Amino acid sequence: MGYPGSSSADSSDAALIEGSWSEPGVFGAIFDRHFDAVRGYLARRVGPGRADDLASSTFVVAFERRRRFRREATTARPWLLGIATNLLRNERRAEQRALELVGRLGSGEPVSAPDDVAEFSRVGEVLATLDPDQRDVLLLYAWEELSYEEIATALGVPVGTVRSRLSRGRTALRSLLGERADLDSPRREMNG
Predict the structure, then answer these.
(1) Given this model, what pLDDT does residue 188 score?
(2) Fewest C-beta in 10 Å: which of 5, 13, 53, 144?
(3) What is the DSSP string of 71-126?
């Protein structure tokens, strides 16, 4: 879809966002490019129903803050996921309740479900106990497959902080899930 002010020669995210300063409709290309990724990330965090609202809010906030986007960035995805993560922080209590509910599925309450549900319940319980900052880094890394640098951009922290949070989160997961947890391939495990 062509947007006013966008040319095929210069349709980078940064160019589109800058173009939207004078022609707001151009921002629609950013929405088209990244909505599915943002919504997918949010759906895995809070479920599909809430994800729609939060994804929409993410793009409203991004549109309002579009003049703050760094022109040298090659993609808006980490920036958008950072906004989404910040919105999630406002939803932390709801997320915590959802993870606790998932954990209760495997708690001995009558549930007729396959072993996968029990394992998912256990992972939900473990994720609920992690430090929220570690959980954010782990999920951006494992679910969204962001690089350390992209996570740092998304969360507004130094790369070293991302590395240490990821390391501590992996250590906590190994400890809580037991030795059979293969966290050397966290993306495969958590996307499974």
Answers:
(1) 44
(2) 53
(3) TT-S-SHHHHHHHHHHHHHHTHHHHHHHHHHHHHHTTTS-----HHHHHHHHHHHH
Q: Give per-residue pLDDT as tens, 101-120.
A: 556 544 444 434 445 556 66
| pLDDT over 60 at 3, yes or no | no
pTM over 0.70, yes/no: no
Q: Which residue has tokens 């947890």?
A: 181
CA 185 – CA 56 distance, rounded (Å): 31
**What are the CA-CA distances from residue 15 to residues 56, 65, 69, 181 (Å)?**
22, 15, 10, 43
Q: Which tokens go with 24?
A: 């707001």
Q: Tens of pLDDT along 48-98?
A: 888 999 999 999 999 999 999 998 888 999 999 999 999 988 777 665 666
Burial string for 86-113 (b: 16+ CB within 10 Å, else e) reads ebbeebeeebeebbeebbebbeeeeeee
